[in-house]
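Lab meeting minutes (informal)
Scribe: AK
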Amino acid sequence: KGTNEDVMKINNLIACLNLRMAKYPQDSRFPSDERKNELLNEATKHFNIASQISSHDAISWVGKGNAWYLHLLRNDPNMAMNAFTNATNLASNNIPALFGQARVYYHRKDYRAALKIYQQIMQADPSLTEPDPRVGIGLCYNKLNNFDQAIAAFDRAIELNPNNISANILLATMELDISKQWQQINEEERLTNFATAMRRSNKVLEFNPNYS
């Protein structure tokens, strides 16, 4: 019989495996909604067992938060936020928990709060590029109609990691939108932005043909 710590780690591992299967496709097919719910419920069960053994285990709280976050359309997002907050109470700069909080705020359309969390993540770990908080920062600025800063955030993410697919797609989308604003910009700018967007889109397809 293992120690409590061993049991906690095993339950966290089982939960993480179930969570991963619920999030990612298997054999090129996404799990059905019914199967996804089964996997998320199983993950939550094992995270609960782990957190009952130790309420100071941040992994369990972050895991439960992620499981509940994937249930957001059905459940109260406060459940996910509470779990992420429990993790940050144990360690204020727990990066996975902060990402979780930012995603919930963004889902609630509280873009200023989400932006603040993404900026906290970047300050805590400026070298972090996978996942890159700059993408979240750019998304928030875009929703707040601060397009120059959104573009700057995506540009910086691409500068640090040219293969950042999300940043390239988002920036290409913004460039394409700008090219359509024929009343606000001259023809040369419009064509330049359109051409840049197309080049960036082709670059994304080189990274990952599945985006076609």
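Next up, CB showed the second protein from the same session:
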Amino acid sequence: MSVLGRTNSAQRDYQEVQLHYVQRGIQTFALISPPLAVLSQLRRPTFRFTPIFRATGIATFGVGSAIGAGLGWATMRGMNDEGVVRKATKIKTDANQRREDDYAFIGGALGALTSTAILLRRVPIPWTLTGGAALGVAGGVLTHLSKLTREGKNEKVNEWVDKVKEIIDDD
């Protein structure tokens, strides 16, 4: 037995579903926060990269992961173990979801490294790493969605947009 009287297998399924919600929150906020940060910076008389990267990093990894974790907890709170196992199995077997997560992860790593290399003297390193990773995650998600569109799988893109709308409406 493990935490809360669940078996280790059931606990892994709970963790898998919770991680999925956290990743979805990060991916959603990675798409939303950069345009908002740029728009807020355009109102200022001098354009600087530091506030953009700081706001993008904090919004994506701080707010996005917290909201995703909260939604995951709220969703699983009403589920029994069988429901969580079904949801975890669906997440594990969805090839498009795995591919999207992989693209987002790779994009995040490349974004963090690239932004740090390019903006090393203009923006403090913590903000280039987090902001660049957020931009990379957004790039990975957009790359995945554009690939689905090119392959003629528009229903998957619409499904992703519906999931984001569902997350926003749950608030």
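CB comment: DSSP finds six helices and no strands in the chain.
No objections, moving on.
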